[in-house]
Amino acid sequence: MHEFSIAESLIEIVQSVSEKEGMNPVEVVHLRIGRLSGIQAEALLLAYQLVTQETPLEGSRLEIQEVEPRAVCRDCGHEFDFPEDFFCCCPQCDSVRIDIKQGREMVVDSLEGEVANGD
């Protein structure tokens, strides 16, 4: 299950940002994951809970927003919802020359937590 290695990389990113911003503790990590990314949200949630044990992120919560796939036609420019079966043509002009615009990403949107007051 590659979600464990993703969770480990996510922890490195979150710890780096939280240290830079002086955030301790991190309470919530907001993540956007595209439905075409190949990442299973439930598996990532479980992996996150396991790999954060005995780290500064233990007890933090991972909140995942799934991003629906969208595509754009290279011929007519029409933007549309991309079906998850990967077989698709433009609903406007029937072209098969399409580009996936969103739905494959994994993005840390934001962190919630306490920021140390420099006083």
Quaternary class: single chain
Helix-strand category: alpha+beta
Rg over CA atoms: 18 Å
Order of helices and strands: HEHEEEEE
Question: What summary fits the major beta sheet?
Answer: 3 strands, mixed
Briefly, what is this?
By secondary structure, the chain is an alpha+beta fold. The protein contains 2 helices and 6 strands.
Description:
Strand 3 and strand 4 form a beta hairpin. Helix 1 crosses helix 2. The N and C termini lie far apart (about 45 Å). Helices cover about 25% and strands about 35% of the residues. It has a three-stranded mixed β-sheet with strand order 2-1-6. It has about 120 residues and is of the alpha+beta class. The model has no long low-confidence stretch (mean pLDDT about 90). The chain has a domain of about 80 residues: hypothetical protein PF0899 fold (2-Layer Sandwich), CATH 3.30.2320.50.
Features of the shown structure:
single chain; 119 residues; elongated; alpha+beta; hypothetical protein PF0899 fold; three-stranded mixed sheet; 2 helices; three-stranded antiparallel sheet
What are the SSEs and their pairings?
Layout (H helix, E strand, L loop, with lengths): L2 H19 L1 E12 L6 H11 L9 E7 L2 E4 L5 E3 L16 E5 L3 E10 L4
Parallel strand pairs: 1-2
Antiparallel strand pairs: 1-6, 3-4, 3-5
Helix pairs in contact: 1-2
